[in-house]
Recover the amino acids of this structure.
């Protein structure tokens, strides 16, 4: 039987030199001193990305960190990667380009090993591009600031978390326009915009915010969209009555019920 | 008896060389061929700002355009300014710095002449800083991207339109964070974010969008704010259940009722 997803979805630019609140939470969820973390830098073209995270996770007390070489699809077929993921307590997906990440690992044995372990309850953490790929439909790219169908391009993601579309670097890059376009076109999704150095911690349908920024949740379920799909892709879409939640660290949200929970007492 | 406000509130960077949709609407509202427009460049430090608008308004067919020299408070006391405003069918407030604009004209005879004519139904149009000052409380400055009390500073405005706080260059500068902070602290105000080359045309409580971008309206009236005023000014404020409207050109909104109107049929 498959377990509820156990995800750490990070909006990018998380602290790696100070208290490392978010990356420490990744280690904690992965088992603390017995954490075995597989870093998958498939989204990145920078050779040092994997090693940089390995250094931080080791400093934060993980028992073991492996960096998987997935610099091409061929590399993603390496049988040793499957073994590493099979033994891992968490996988960490770095930033870079979410389309590159999907191109490199989608449908490979590594992808299957990842999904097998997710069903067994393994933690998956991802930042920036590694956050975007967690949903079934992801934002591939787009202009941040226009509520317009041709301002955003979507593509299939890893399908680790149903019912949402994630956007990252959210406030820093002023991306509410493109996320509004997504929920206007696909109102069955919650739009989840995560600021930098901020994470949404998800266990099943329950989510909690951690970090310095805010998580913005857009719910167009009750909105008047006036057939957004009939608006020409080059024209602005209007939405009336979208419900917006802007949640700071510690606040909790029920993704299935689409509602914010009261803050803890005191 | 005072008339309902007749305002053209522009989010900045409106077209001045192409079809000039928004500035042509200013001329139309001001009386078209009999329009007499007083340009008040008090927000600007650039000597050419007033003349640039005069050129456009004359090209668009206004009968007469006067540029008021309000480069200091002393200049704002010039009796001839009162005569110009008394005869004007519209006043146009340029961009620049909204605090400078208020410092230069607030409480002067020009300010009184302006309010007297507004009560008689004169059109007031303003762009950017000239848009910000239309409300009773305006955003003086602030960081765009943080939902935090110390990220935004408010100051008194011209009180031409009650019940709202206006933000401009809205999508282009990613300002939803600071506007959310304002409505969290002052939920009696609607937050009105206007994109560049976009205007909100207001007559009384009725508003209509015109231009290339969107107008974003934030209504925290039904939101759960958990005493935002008790959150330390350096901490993120959480808001749950804010109602958001993102309205494209042609869409209408009732400001008093806080609701979007159905789009025109067809």
């Amino acid at each position: 039987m498959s377990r509820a997803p156990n995800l750490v979805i990070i909006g990018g630019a998380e602290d790696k030199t100070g208290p490392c609140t978010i990356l420490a939470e990744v280690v904690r969820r992965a088992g603390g001193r017995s954490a075995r973390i597989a870093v998958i830098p498939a989204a990145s073209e920078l050779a040092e990305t994997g090693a940089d995270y390995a250094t931080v996770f080791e400093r934060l007390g993980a028992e073991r960190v492996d960096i998987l070489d997935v610099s091409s699809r061929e590399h993603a077929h390496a049988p040793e990667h499957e073994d590493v993921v099979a033994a891992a307590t968490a996988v960490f997906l770095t930033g870079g380009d979410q389309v590159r990440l999907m191109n490199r690992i989608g449908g490979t044995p590594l992808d299957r090993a990842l999904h097998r372990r997710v069903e067994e309850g393994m933690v998956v953490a991802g930042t920036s591009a590694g956050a975007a790929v967690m949903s079934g439909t992801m934002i591939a790219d787009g202009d941040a600031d226009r509520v317009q169908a041709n301002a955003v391009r979507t593509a299939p993601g890893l399908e680790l978390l149903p019912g949402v579309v994630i956007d990252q670097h959210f406030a820093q890059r002023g991306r509410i326009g493109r996320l509004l376009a997504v929920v206007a076109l696909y109102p069955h999704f919650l739009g989840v915009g995560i600021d930098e150095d901020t994470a949404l911690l998800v266990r099943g349908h329950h989510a909690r915010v951690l970090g310095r920024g805010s998580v913005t949740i857009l719910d167009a379920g009750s909105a008047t969209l006036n057939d957004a799909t009939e608006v020409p892709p080059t024209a602005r879409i209007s939405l009336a009555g979208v419900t917006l939640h802007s949640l700071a660290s510690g606040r909790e949200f029920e993704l299935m019920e689409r509602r914010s929970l009261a803050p803890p007492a005191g």
About this structure: The longest helix of chain B spans residues 49-59. Residues 57 and 232 of chain B are 47 Å apart (CA to CA).
